[in-house]
Design a protein that fits this description.
single chain, alpha/beta, Rossmann fold, 2 domains, six-stranded parallel β-sheet, 33% helix, Glycosyltransferase family 9 protein, transferase, Glyco_trans_9, glycosyltransferase
Amino acid sequence: MSCPFPGFQRAPQGPLEPYKLLLRTAQQLRRENYAMAINLRPDFWWGAALIYLAAIPRRIGYAIEPGTPFLTHALPFPAHEHASISNLRLISASLQALGYEPLDELYTPERYPLQFTPTPAEQQWASEHLQAEGLSPEQPIVVIHAGTGGEVKLWRPEAWATCANRLASLPQFSTAPQLVLTGSQQERPMLEEIARKLDAPALLLTNTTVGQLAALLQRAQLVLGVDNGPLHLAVAQGVPTVNLFGPTDTRIFGPWGPAARHIAIASKQRCQGCATIPCGRLDFTAEEVAQHPCVRSISEQQVLQAIANLATQPMPKQVS
């Protein structure tokens, strides 16, 4: 079952509404009689409180206040560790709590790869959709997913267009690739802005399901984007990626895949008012974003060089 995030509702609400929602959701969970719950997000005290109120007997997570008292197994939190490793540690502790052998502790993408397999129906959807747009299975595809949940993490639309227009000159492409711009319906105006600056028409796809997007990414030779979920989905499809980071830490949130096939470009520009780079802040207002250009300071040349560096690696086979 999917549970709402009690403290993160966008609609106007009274101060007690998140707590009422927390109690209602806990009652739903209680009826499921779960034996164990794992709170994977270390700073998510709502999740820890939820599984406590649901009376789930084994509750595993990291010892970060104010969530620690709600857990039966609170592990020390390792700072600056990749989120995938932190999650694997929790899974290992959960196995031990159930009486099973823990995971082997060499946590690497090669041993514990990120995987998400689209269904045959989703793969068929991607093939038919691309074919309907006039794309053959042999035609190279590059996907740009420019959107993300935090405005401060966005790159410049004109910079995306500049890089897209230069792709055909890069060593891994013997012919000009078809560009596909993906995103949500709310992000469509940004995608259209990028498309207007392109030398060749792009295919815009919005409001796909996660599985449909994964099937589309399988067909790509390269996926470009900022710090967002679809870039991790691309990693799970084994497709090379270039990821742009600013306020978020690549050590924690970077791609969980072989470094030779997934390049994270971290901005080195510390914004005025931020003590460090990365600062970890995503809650800037629209007015404040202009004063925090860390991602936007990444140059087109940096991105093009990263793409060229991937040319030394074997490209994925096309999925028809």
